Amino acid sequence: MNPRWPRRGLYLITPDLADTGELLARVGAVLADAALLQYRNKAADAALRREQASALLALCRRHDVPLIVNDDAALAADIGADGVHLGEDDEDISAARAWLGRGALIGASCYDSLDRARRAAEAGADYIAFGAFFPSPTKPHARRATPALLRDSAALGRPRVAIGGITPDNAPLLIDAGADLLAVISGVFDAADPAAAARAYRDCFEA
Ligand SMILES: Cc1ncc(COP(=O)(O)OP(=O)(O)O)c(N)n1
Ligand SMILES: Cc1ncsc1CCOP(=O)(O)O
Ligand SMILES: [Mg+2]
């Protein structure tokens, strides 16, 4: 992975919000404690996604936090974002690399599969993501993974991202198993005090 990308910490993912002003305000309140931000909105049309991704990129630049776009390498390339996250229903890593170039950060969902992680690493993924590790309020039917997968994938030599139902309470278990980045939506954005929640995840890496 390009040394310019963060290798540890809170990987914040946006909730589906239709109001761009509200999205910016809620992300702006917690971005100081994030290592990476992913723009993910499964409910927006192409025009709104473009508007929101562009606005978040300006915010991220002010905080010096890289912006990853979920699902859509063309949008990431178009607005000059730092990378893309791809899952099994999205385009493949080589097509995204062609859109974004060598310096971009490309992440791959590997769910509960070490074999998929191996193939993603060989195809040039900069990080491999596993999960859901716990029941996810955002994606209740997500496939489940176990912490052993984090240990078993260490030899692939890519930063390992954990996702799915992660809270400041269960985060240490995943970090102990080898997670480098913790990808979180509801644990921050549905918290009573989102800024305090974001700080609590960050503190888990410093404990
Ligand atoms: C960091 C991270 N890990 C996993 C996912 C899930 O990607 P995918 O399986 O493509 O599902 P959607 O997010 O597109 O619903 C992710 N977005 N980010
Ligand atoms: C996109 C995705 N993929 C697996 S779980 C998940 C959602 C994570 O959100 P939360 O942190 O609210 O469980
Ligand atoms: Mg996807």
Automatic annotation (TrEMBL):
The keyword Signal does not apply. The keyword S-adenosyl-L-methionine does not apply. InterPro entries: Aldolase_TIM, ThiamineP_synth_sf, ThiamineP_synth_TenI, TMP_synthase. Belongs to the thiamine-phosphate synthase family. Mg(2+) binds at D71, D90. Pathway: Cofactor biosynthesis; thiamine diphosphate biosynthesis; thiamine phosphate from 4-amino-2-methyl-5-diphosphomethylpyrimidine and 4-methyl-5-(2-phosphoethyl)-thiazole: step 1/1. Pfam families: TMP-TENI. Binds 1 Mg(2+) ion per subunit. 2-[(2R,5Z)-2-carboxy-4-methylthiazol-5(2H)-ylidene]ethyl phosphate binds at S136, P137, T138, G165, I185, S186. Its cofactor is Mg(2+). It comes from the Bacteria. Keywords: Magnesium, Metal-binding, Thiamine biosynthesis, Transferase. Residues 10-188 form the Thiamine phosphate synthase/TenI domain. GO terms for molecular function: thiamine-phosphate diphosphorylase activity. Its EC number is 2.5.1.3. It catalyses: 2-[(2R,5Z)-2-carboxy-4-methylthiazol-5(2H)-ylidene]ethyl phosphate + 4-amino-2-methyl-5-(diphosphooxymethyl)pyrimidine + 2 H(+) = thiamine phosphate + CO2 + diphosphate; 2-(2-carboxy-4-methylthiazol-5-yl)ethyl phosphate + 4-amino-2-methyl-5-(diphosphooxymethyl)pyrimidine + 2 H(+) = thiamine phosphate + CO2 + diphosphate; 4-methyl-5-(2-phosphooxyethyl)-thiazole + 4-amino-2-methyl-5-(diphosphooxymethyl)pyrimidine + H(+) = thiamine phosphate + diphosphate. This is Thiamine-phosphate synthase. Condenses 4-methyl-5-(beta-hydroxyethyl)thiazole monophosphate (THZ-P) and 2-methyl-4-amino-5-hydroxymethyl pyrimidine pyrophosphate (HMP-PP) to form thiamine monophosphate (TMP). Signal peptide: none annotated. 4-amino-2-methyl-5-(diphosphooxymethyl)pyrimidine binds at Q38, Y39, R40, N41, K42, N70, S109, K139.
